[in-house]
What does this fold into?
Amino acid sequence: MPIEFQIPPEVERQAEQARAVAENVMRPKSRYYDEHEHERPWEFIHLMWPEMRERTRRELEASLRRAHPDTDGSDPGTGSEACAEKAKRPRTANMALIHLVEMLSWGDAGIYLCLPGPALAGAAIQAVGTPEQKERFLRRFTEGEPKWGAMAMTEPQAGSDTSAIQTTAVLDPETQEWVLNGQKIFCTNGKLAYQESDGLIVVWATVDRSAGRAGIKPFVVEAGTPGLQIVTEEKKLGIRASDTASFVLDNCRIPADNILGSPEVKGGREGFKGAMRTFDATRPIVAASAIGIGRAAFEFTRDTLAQEGIRMEYGRPRWKLSAPQVDLLEMEIQLRQAWLLTLKAAALLDAGEYNKLAASMAKVKAGKAVTWVTQKAVELLGPLGYTTQTLAEKWFRDAKINDIYEGTGQINTLIVARTILGYTRRELK
It folds into this structure.
């Protein structure tokens, strides 16, 4: 695939619009929502909903076109000519999304996470769902009032090791309903998806514990389903504007066709592979968010030190620079490296190519970079960086989650190593 560093015009226009939102709506409220955890930024939500609604519509129709190439996905009578013309256009959906996420996270990562839309649930449905399921579950996010999707995978005894998932799904032969029982924790936007009308949560459960990963399947649980109950809304170190919920599923009954993909356990790992395809799509997004936080911290530190006469000098060798200048240079280098990896992962996804390695590399690098860059910002700013007079200490707190969720840095490092070296999970742990 050829390397192209020119930002598509439509992506650049969107990034400029996002900058205005980040500067004027998000950044001024950043400290408020950090100190008022569990309040929701409704001004931001309502402002962004039309854009997210339209984005979901475009992605849904593009997905349906790929499934039914003889139609355009939204109007079966349109014909093959229009479909062929659309197929010639380069896909930029994921490239546009990472630019949007990076800019909004520069504004405030916690507020950004409150974006309405299908989110992780949508990624799972797109990765594993049938065309009928995509239409049924994702169409709701293209109309009406703001609504959210969420994904529930982590359990008290099952974090990175998904084979340890204990939540069960049993098909009731009389009612033809799946009955789910178990507990899920650390579900991003879980409360919003649970409370708001037409929200939904993709719950990963096992239909056969003895089958290990092969028995793990994703199920769509819609808002208001009896048997699904929030038990905890977490208080967190950072990204406090975002809700993180824990659930109990107690004989939670859902229709038989709410399982994504096949219910069969064939000795393969279709359900687990579906989860991994979901992460291949979402890890570049997490990386982009990390880079947005890191850029906010870097730019503030650079500009603050410049006011004290310490300016970046790109043309001089390092040994002629002061220690703070070297640190600033390294901060920018780390963020640029992470951004290039993230661009590659998104570009591969847009091209319909395999991006597992690129997605994990971007996630690992961005998680490490943002943690180091924000820590260095607090260090260089001294007492000013450690107090709440500035947002530096908040960026430091917001940063770490990017090295944890969507697969920890350690897990993604293992994925990178296994992929490059050709080892299996059993051979390299």
Residues 72-80, 82-88 have pLDDT under 50 and may be disordered.
